Amino acid sequence: MALLPYSLPKSVLFNLDPEAAHDLTMAGLARLQNTPLACLWGADRVQDPVEVAGITFPNRIGMAAGLDKNGRVIDGLGAMGFGFVEVGTVTPKAQPGNPKPRMFRLPEANALINRLGFNNEGLDSFLANVKRAQFRSKGGILGLNIGKNALTPIENAVDDYLICLEGVYPHADYVTVNISSPNTKNLRALQSDEALDALLGQLQARRQDLVKRHGRTVPMFVKIAPDLDETQVGVIAATLQKNGIDGVIATNTTISREAVKGLKHAEETGGLSGAPVLEASNQVIRQLRAALGPRYPIIGVGGVMSAADARSKRDAGADLVQIYTGLIYKGPALVKECAQALKRG
Questions:
Q1: What distance in Å separates the CA atoms of residue 201 and residue 237, rounded to the nearest whole number?
Q2: 182 and 225 Cβ atoms separated by less than 8 Å
Q3: CATH code of residue 76
Q4: Domain that holds residue 73
């Protein structure tokens, strides 16, 4: 933190249940954002403008979706110096998510496991929060991440995505279609060839209607999993291009436990994030870049705990980089460190 070393709040938060610590942090950010006390965690934004998918991002470092599912603390996160902030995943209806406990720290590995399950307050509440945020008016780029309700059958998933796309479209700089969380039953089946083609085709058709209605084109990204082989990545890449999708976010959390075998909580069900995901994520980014060519937009996320990790994402082929678990383990100073590391003079 700018005025308070992160080691102090971290020592308190890491003695709490992980979800309780998350809720306490979010409540504090919500209460103190846009007040003078935001200086406790605030930092000047590194100026390193770059154009990706037709958007000029102030710098290459973003907040990944999942931390702020309800869009409550967009300004609090933005004050840390992010060039862009992505919030959600939002679903049409409010839902509680999976039973607790559902979040676990693996501190020896700088990792987390979560099986939250798209717990959120629903689209209406989400949009009310987004509309109140000042981040976009201050030059930040806002991504809105959409998903399906757990009770919606997978064969009707497109209906939920279309509802969310309609709702978020006027308020987003870009929209992310999340088909890769491991914590909603059958969701990752939407990454398969025919299912993905059908989903993206309908989303693209609806976007064309929204472009006419709102007079602006909002880029769409698709977020994919790290647990894909090269053939699957190639099929996804071809399907994205076929359907005119503007970019891809690689990757979500992993269901693999190879890197954390033997650690406490390692066998908990859910998605593993943090340092153990770095190389798996980078491998998917490399495969995407090879399949998509040099100019297709890729946002890299997964395992960024340091400036060197951020550079490894760029070296793998990412245009932009997001962080999440690294923020929890390393604190807000990581944002500026990574943004400076990726700045091109």
A1: 14
A2: yes
A3: 3.20.20.70
A4: 44-342
- Tokens 């209906």: give the residue: 159
Active-site residue, from 181, 273, 281, 306: 181
Half-sphere exposure at residue 74, Cβ-oriented, CA atoms within 13 angstroms: 28
Rg of the Cα trace of the chain? 18
32-38, long-range: CB within 8 Å, 24+ apart, which pairs?
32/76, 33/73, 33/75, 33/76, 33/79, 34/75, 34/134, 38/76, 38/79
Q: Is the peptide bond before 253 cis (omega within 30 degrees of 0)?
A: no
Percent of the chain with pLDDT over 90: 93
Identify the residue whose tokens are 């990454």.
191
For residue 171, pLDDT over 90 is answered with: yes
Band of pLDDT at residue 187, cut at 50, 70 and 90: confident
Q: What's the predicted TM-score (pTM) here?
A: 0.96
Residue 333 has pLDDT above 90, yes or no: yes
For residue 1, is pLDDT > 50?
A: no
Backbone angles phi and psi of 222, in degrees to 5: -120, 130
Does any domain span residue 93? Answer: yes
Say what the pLDDT of residue 16 is: 97
Whole-number average pLDDT of the chain? 95
Tell me if residue 86 falls in helix, strand or coil. strand
Residue 3 confidence (pLDDT): 54
What's the total number of domains in the chain? 1
Q: Which two tokens stand for residue 113?
A: 């496991």
Residue 4 lies in a domain: no
For residue 289, tell me if it sits in a domain: yes
How is residue 69 annotated by DSSP? T
Whether residue 181 lies in the annotated active site? yes
